[in-house]
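Field notebook, page 729. I keep forgetting to write these up properly, so this time I am using the form the group agreed on. The chain and the ligand, DGJ, are recorded exactly as supplied. Prediction of the bound pose follows.
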Amino acid sequence: MKNTEPTIFFDGKEKIFYLENEKITCAFWIDPCGTLQTLYFGEKVGHDLIPVVPKAPGQHAVTRKKDGYSCDPSLISAAVHTSFGGDSFEPSLSVVLPDGARRLDLICVSHREAPKSRLAGLPSVSGGKSLLFELMDPAVPAISVTLSFSIQAGQSAVESSVLIRNCGKEPVTLTRAYSFSLQIPAGEWDTVVLHGQHAQECQIDRRPLSFGLFSVGTRRGISSSSMNPFLALCENAATETSGRVYAAALVYSGSHVLSAEKMPSGNVRFQGGVQDGEFTWKLDPGEAFQTPEAVLCFSSDGLGGMSRAFHDLFRAHLIPQRRVSSPRPVVFNNWEGTHFTFNGEKLRAMADSVAGTGIDTFVLDDGWFGKRNDSTSGLGDWFTNEEKLGGPLSDLVEYVHQKGMKFGLWFEPEMISRDSDLFRAHPDWVLREPHHEPVESRNQWVLDLGRAEVRACIADRVNRILAENRIDYVKWDMNRDLAEGYSSVLPPERQGETFHRYVLGLYDLLDRVVNANPDVFFEGCSSGGCRFDAGMLAYFPQIWASDNTDAYSRTRIQYGTSLVYPPSSISCHVSSSPNASYGSHFVPFASRASLAQFGATGYEFDPTKLPEQDLASISGQIETYRGDEDLILNGDLYRLLSPFEGEFFAVMNVSRDRRRARLLVFRRLRYANVPLTRASLQGLDPELDYDCAELGGRFSGATLMRFGVPLRLSGEDGAALVLHFRAVN
Ligand code: DGJ
């Protein structure tokens, strides 16, 4: 299907706006009282929608009445829900006015369309068209609310964000400012979330939505592994391949909330944004607050369709375009091989071992700077520890470059150690409550990135190291929660802004470092995948998915992460087995490599101790990866077998023209009488014939998808199988 520009159509008679592309429609209705309602979101429909006014029988509060039209504001699908105007369910916007009043009866006063523009201070999906609505309450002219809905050609998603402005003469306070509010029709819905913890990120949890409020999120100051900023509502009967799914992912890296409230009517109010538990935001006259963006996605092809919709949008309109589809560095990282215990000689020996294998980037992880030989010191002192490296960093970089590899370096720019020169010089730069010792986590504290002078110092230090040492790649790590939402430079009434100001400061710091070094490849990390979100993807084409590199555990982590984020963004390494930190099972080296080729691949162990035959096999593995890389980075992902449901993990990457495909199967544990002997492929063209070299035959797409392919796996634990398909006619 050819993608055409998205359009906005206004039916003036019915007062309905259609924001649409060739796949989806998002329709808004201005009701007779002037309320802006989201009338429809889903698969494309005609310009013939008829607004249905929910009946408000009996005791319902009817505060919206005009010309024979009357409604209970709780029942309608308002694009913004506010409190105290008769709506007794969760609001999406709460403003405290100077006199303590909180009711806002918003009506739509104008609309306009515009090319999509960047959000002030926040990452956002780019391109496409926006439809903007201006809302006001005639009784409270101090507040103006601008809703923005955007759509791109060919995508099954819209983006929603809200701007709240104080047009009055006195300060007002926001206590909630969500990014979207959408009503899902009554029905039997399941919630799907990605929960987890360190070393166990992105675990899928699906359960029926019952009446009342279902709310997920985090107050940890970072998007976190506890709850990824994503929530899907899928039809009870939906599968990977069929059924309706509505899903939201926030383009935001801080504390967040997403909720689904099944109301007595059966309708579901789906909304979310910045977590409001600790949040307040004071708006002085003339000031505005911009919410982060929510990506709202619709699929009628089940969870698989939802994932492909997110992947397509993020790859085409969010992830840095100069990196997203081009070949990735295949890195060797020293962390799991040495942790903090290394010197220049050891690093050179490691570089000698991996040179010539096809690994093209040597990454020096934590411990190269300050006086850092364990996690208790040095963060913030971004100066080379020449004593440890046995000379200047530039000498080591030169050594690695001479070996034909690029050089990568680890930073944790947002942190400070108690034992650091930075802390001794600036003790007040720590984010901390005034009456207590700051909360320590991994022996470190968090810098107050809300402060411009802190960001300027860190950007300068990091940029200096990059410029002076010809660094090609950076791993940007972040190893703890924020814990304390208190900044020593904010007045008491603004302390509730600290967490969000931190996130805004972080994006500014990333602009100054990542965007200021376009030739450096940046990978994100946060104790593994503890900050894997769409906000980070606007800066990092790939993110380290987990510190848990045990292949058995990685099946679930990578499978779960792919629910929202494309394989190209998921960084996966081959490590030792049984993995020293997290593994109890031995997985063959070749299988570990296959599983690590689910996304952007790399290696992480002590290569000087690796069995000779494993080391020798790396070049062949990388050759396979390079051959498949275009499919992995740019193809469509189909999930066939879920490691959450059994011992098998199976996915496919299919080229956009459906002429090439790769099947990757991994069986976690061998078990007796395995009933599963074949897998039905997805995403192929049933009319085409495909050659499969590994199976030694030619098969029709119809056969491959309906009968399937045999799963001829070896008998050991952690057996893997990779099959390639190429269309011949
Ligand atoms: C956490 C990361 O996830 C690891 O890969 C490693 O970089 C350590 N931090 C270093 O402290």
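OBSERVATIONS:
- The chain has a mean pLDDT of 96.
- The chain is about 20% helix and 30% strand.
FOLLOW-UP: compare against the apo run.
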